[in-house]
Each structure stands twice: as C-alpha cells, then as structure tokens.
Amino acid sequence: MTTEEAAEAFARKISSRFDVVCFDLDQCAVQTHSRGRLRRRDLDAFASHVSKDLVAAVPALLRHNCSLAIVTHSDLAQHGTLKPRDTFILGDDLVHEVLKRCPGLKQYAHAFFVVAWRPKSRGDEGKKDLGKIRHMRTCAAFYDVPIERCVLFDDDASNCSLVEVSPGHNFFAYRCDPEKGFRLSDYFHVEEENDNAPSSTSADEDNYFEQKSDGTIDRLDRWDHKWNHEYESKPRFHLPQVNPNLAQWYGQKFT
Fold it and tell me: Is this prediction's pTM over 0.85?
C-alpha cells in the first residue's frame, strides 16, 4: 500500500467516527520539540521535521470533510524579558509559521484552527483545564460539533488520558511515538485489523494505556496491574499527604 493509499484509508476510517481531527505540535505534527525556546532563526530547520504522514493525511482528511486543528502548549504567554518575541517564537506565531514553511502543508495552512494554550502560564485560570481539555473544548466550540466527534493525536500520555470534558462527555485521544511523530498507524479501530499498529490489548512497557473495545481508554486496569505486580503495593514516591485519588481506588492498603 502506498502512502497515499494509506492516507486515504486513514481518512476514511477517521471520518466515519469524527468531524474534527486535532494534532499536537511538538513530537507529533513535527517530529522534534521546540522546548518553549525556539529561536526565529531556527524556524526553517524546525519546520523541515514536519511528519511526512501528516503531510499525506491532511489533503485526504479534507477530502473526507474533516475539520483540522493544531493544539499545543506552546503559548504567547511564555514570552518575557528572557524570551523576547523578536528573538523567540512561540504559540500561534510558531504554528502558523510552521504550516507556511512546510512545502506539503502551506497550501492547506488556512484549513487549520490553532489553539495555543499552556495552563502553567495562565495561573489559576489554567488550573481549570489541564492537559488538552481546554484546547479540545475550544475546537469543538469553534467547529460547532459535540466533543465526542473530536479526536486528538498527541505524544504525551497524560494528554491522552485527560479526556473527560464534563461528566459523561469526552473526546478521544491516540498516542503517537514521540521519537517518530504522527504516523497514520497511530489510529486504529479496535474492531479492525491494522498490521502497522500495536495490539489494542497490549500491556507492555511501551504502552501507557489500554484501549477497551468501546474505544475508551482504561488506565485503572493498567495501574492496578502495575500496583499489584510491579510496585508490590508499595508507593515508590513521597507526598506530604496521601493522594486521595489513589486512596479511593486502592483503599486502605495504600494508606
């Protein structure tokens, strides 16, 4: 199967379940990390690492009437005296420049909605929406679709697990390999065979979460296994007080 054929198959499967497809920037849409301190002089080098699979997927997704977004924790709020805007590039500026500088994406740059928001840079306001929750809510509102019709591709396992926007309402997330960036095989429907994707029931050390047959992510079973077998029911970290979430799940044996 050629890359174009794989991209078409990917877009066909995605469009059957989702209306909005969102990509993280660092180590996903781009196969390297800006680290929140990319200098403008290094933009061309950074943009040269855009995922080839993303370049192939974008026109196919648009043909299948999917809406697109880049969602990133790079934020204009990170600028300051140590990161002046005329020297460093962050947030929306960074995303738009990458899209314009990539030969395979510049003609589609206008099709991307961009959400550049870093909770840590937004103080108390940021604490309301950890992970990519705010990003995904914003995308759903912009495109006027239910949050369940939005999907995220991200290299960060925590961003792929924090998916509940409100009780009973969540988006879907699929993790990509941070060393390789986005690949067409990062998405696979659990009811279909995909030789290029890992098994959805795999629980090896490279798999940070498990996907159940209904498409939801099951972290509790994964951590239950790690707690009882790898950690031997003994905490390997120290907190000033018991983590209430772990105590609730594991009961008195944690305390």
Answer: no
